[in-house]
Structures are given as C-alpha cells and as structure tokens.
C-alpha cells in the first residue's frame, strides 16, 4: 500500500505524521476536522525527569503503525472478533496534522503565547484540536487558546474542563514561587473567565495529591475529584458519566486534558512522574472509548509522554492508541461484515 509520497506505509518509513494524516496548514482546516498539533516542550517540568519535548514525535511514530495495519487490510477494514464488527478509517479528509506549534525553549511565557495563539487559530476555523505534549504545562496555554477560539465563534462561551491524571496539577505555586509549570496548570485554567469551578473535574487521581491549601479549595468549591480507586469501584463508564455531568453542565464545550501517567508506571514507564497505583493500560483504553461517546468534548490534549524514559516504546504506543480510541467515532466507521453495510461507529479495539 502506498503512502503520500508513494512509499510503503510502515512504522519506520516516510514522514511520521499522526496516523499518517496529511500535513496541513491553517487554511486547510474545515469545520469539524480533527487537527493534530504538537508542543514539544519539557520546560514546564521543575521537579522531575525531562524528555517530554520528544513526546509529539514519539506519539506520531507510535501511531503510525496502526495506520499501516488499516492500509494493508482488505477494503481497509479490520474485524473486531469480540463483536464481529469491521472497523474502517473514514479517510484523510477527517484529520490533518498541522505540525508543531510555536514554542520558545528559553522562555515559557513566549511558549505560552505561541501555543495559545496556535490552538485559537485551529478552534476559530472550526477544527477540533488534538494537542500532543509536551509536559503537562501544555494544557494551560492550550486551554487558553481553546477559550480564545471559542470566544471568536460565540459570545460569552462557557467551557468545562476534565483533567485525567494521577496528579491534580492544582498547585497555586510550586517550588520557588513558580506559578507557571506542570504542577500549576489546572489552577491557571481555573482562573480563565470562560470556566467556573462547578465545571471542573478530575479523574484518575492517586491518593494523596493535594496539599492543605488545595484541599481547602477542593472543599470550599466542591470540586469534583474522582481517584483511580474510586473509578475502579464505580466502573469506568459510570465514572466518566459522573465527571462529565459536572464538566458538561450548561457549557458549550468540554476540554479534556490527559496525562499518560494516569496509567500505572509498570505499563506507562515513559513519563516524568510514574505512579504505581494507577489504572491499567486496558482500563485506560476503555476510559478513552467511553469518552469518545461524548460529542461535547471539543478539545483534547495528551501530555507527559517522554520517549527517552521508555526504550521499550510501550508508552508512545499506548498514548497513540488512547488518542485513536477517544477519537474513534470521528475517524472510524464500523461495517457489518455479513452485508458490508456501514453501521455507524460502534466502538472497536485493535
Ligand atoms: Mn501527572
């Protein structure tokens, strides 16, 4: 099977855009298109191990092999044996990869503006941004850009926020008074004029992640925080429903930020701050599939993938699969293998 330049599509051949999506510019964005953008930074990490700057390229490479499977399959259709349903990529018109947004490795505020400006450009044109981090500072400028773009499309938009992470990233300041880093990003988002505390939710937290100041905020504003343990007790679909009832209540859009370290360090070792009471990889994929059913989700990022910390490559592949799962209905259609008829998206697994 041939790729855009006639080369065989394989994980080590050609230009690794996300899922081999076409490389696009801002003018190519159409209403409803999924637009992938990278933010290759780790300048927001102030306590931990670096390497997230290689995340966007790593996730793109990780995603590439899944496209090659679709391309070599007869009728570009693979069959899920649990359901006997065929899965087919809708085609290149559904998604584009716009490359990496403007960053400044020496100046985090310049990076902030570059990312916010880039994401707002995507949203203004009707694209659904899928931002590849980068450390988890990225969600703050990305949300800022998302809010700016929404403001250009609608007066006084209201936005909900779902933070999927082992950590709350809700510090007001972290280490030496820094207010702009990967531990403060959800707090900075909470200060945006388009969002209310009542529309903020966290999912997948691991136990003791708040200090006393954050705990007071949690109590005073009745913030919705669901731990990994609670999620497993409730069941993934019910937990997703619960957090989205908060994040999606009376809003125009929900922005979802995903930290790959929500997955246990045994299955997601390529990340800055591994935890060891996290959810499993298969539970993460179920969580992403559950989220794919909510159309109110109109902006996504996935952060903290650090390829150099995982020479096995499992983390980049998991991140790529997670994104393909949350984007499922946007990118794939399902086919009745008996009749060949398109049945509408019904979920899938690779
Ligand atoms: Mn985290």
How would you portray this structure in words?
With 350 residues, the protein is an alpha/beta fold. It has one domain: Ureohydrolase domain (Arginase, Chain A, 3-Layer(aba) Sandwich), CATH 3.40.800. The protein has helices spanning 55-72, 108-124, 139-153, 185-190, 212-220, 228-234, 236-247, 281-291, 314-326, 328-331; strands at residues 34-39, 77-80, 85-89, 95-100, 128-133, 159-164, 200-205, 224-227, 253-259, 297-303, 332-336. Strands 4-1-5-10-9-6-7-8 form an 8-stranded parallel β-sheet, with helices on both faces. Strand 9, helix 8 and strand 10 (297-303) form a beta-alpha-beta unit. Helix 1 crosses helix 9 (314-326) and helix 2 runs parallel beside helix 3. The longest helix has 18 residues, at 55-72. It is globular and about 60 Å long. The chain starts with 33 loop residues before the first strand and ends in a 14-residue tail after the last strand. The structure holds manganese (II) ion. The site of manganese (II) ion (MN) has 8 residues, from loops. Manganese (II) ion binds at residues 136, 165-167, 259, 261, 273, 304.
């Amino acid at each position: 099977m041939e790729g855009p330049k006639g080369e065989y599509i394989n994980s080590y051949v050609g230009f690794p855009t996300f899922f081999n999506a076409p490389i696009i510019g801002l003018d190519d964005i159409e209403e409803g298109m999924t637009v992938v953008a990278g933010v290759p930074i780790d300048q927001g990490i102030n306590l931990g191990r670096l390497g997230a700057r290689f995340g966007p390229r790593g996730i793109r490479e990780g995603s590439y092999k899944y496209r090659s499977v679709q391309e070599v399959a007869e009728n570009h259709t693979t069959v899920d044996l649990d359901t006997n349903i065929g899965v087919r990529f809708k085609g290149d018109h559904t998604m584009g990869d716009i490359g990496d947004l403007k960053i400044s490795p020496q100046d985090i505020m310049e990076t902030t503006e570059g990312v916010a400006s880039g994401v707002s450009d995507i949203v203004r044109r009707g694209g659904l941004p899928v931002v590849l981090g980068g450390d988890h500072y990225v969600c703050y400028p990305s949300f800022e850009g998302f809010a700016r773009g929404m403001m250009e499309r609608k007066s006084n938009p209201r936005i909900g926020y779902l933070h999927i992470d082992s950590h709350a990233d809700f510090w007001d300041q972290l280490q030496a008074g820094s207010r702009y880093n990967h531990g403060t990003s959800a707090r900075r988002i909470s200060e945006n004029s388009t969002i209310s505390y009542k529309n903020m939710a966290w999912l997948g937290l691991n136990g003791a992640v708040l200090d006393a100041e954050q705990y007071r905020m949690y109590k005073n504003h009745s913030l919705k925080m669901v731990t990994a343990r609670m999620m497993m007790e409730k069941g993934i679909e019910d937990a997703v429903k619960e957090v989205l009832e908060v994040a999606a209540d009376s809003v125009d859009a929900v922005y979802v930020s995903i930290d790959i370290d929500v997955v246990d360090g045994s299955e997601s070792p390529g990340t800055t701050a591994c935890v060891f009471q996290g959810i499993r990889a298969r539970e993460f994929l179920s969580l992403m599939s559950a989220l794919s059913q909510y159309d109110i989700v109109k902006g996504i990022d996935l952060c903290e993938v650090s390829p150099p910390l995982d020479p096995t490559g499992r983390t980049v592949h998991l991140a790529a699969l997670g994104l393909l799962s949350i984007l499922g209905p946007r990118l794939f259609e399902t086919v009745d293998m008996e009749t060949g008829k398109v049945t509408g998206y019904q979920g899938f697994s690779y």
